[in-house]
Amino acid sequence: MSRKxxxxxxxxxxxxxxxxxxxxxxxxxxxxxxxxLRNVEDLLAERxxxxxxxTVRFWWNRFGPMFAADIRxxxxxxxxxxxxxxxxxxxxxxxxxxxxxxxxxxxxxxxEVLEAxxxxxxxx
Length: 124
Description:
- There is one protein chain.
- The protein has three helices and three strands.
- With about 120 residues, the chain is α+β, with helices and mostly antiparallel strands.
- It has a three-stranded antiparallel beta sheet with strand order 1-2-3, with no helix packed on it.
- It is extended and about 60 Å long.
- The termini are far apart.
- The model has no long low-confidence stretch (mean pLDDT about 85).
């Protein structure tokens, strides 16, 4: 009994008229630089691409998490392949809205916060 080869997952860009390269460029412009939706729309208009700011917002909401996960996955793979990837735990007391909290942060060797957790200190 032979098995059929597993089909590739469908492209997330399959229902869009714009190319995946344009969508990636637009989302990355909005995320990487401190630009508003209107600024991205104006920059694209200067390059001859007519895309509404609502389209930019929609693409950012739809594809932003996917691009971020892809970048994070590639970065972690690169770090694990070339250098010994390390992380450590930071602990500190902070005041939030006048209350003392204990903050734990998992930080990698580049200083990027991997996870953060804050607890309220109970005073007895």
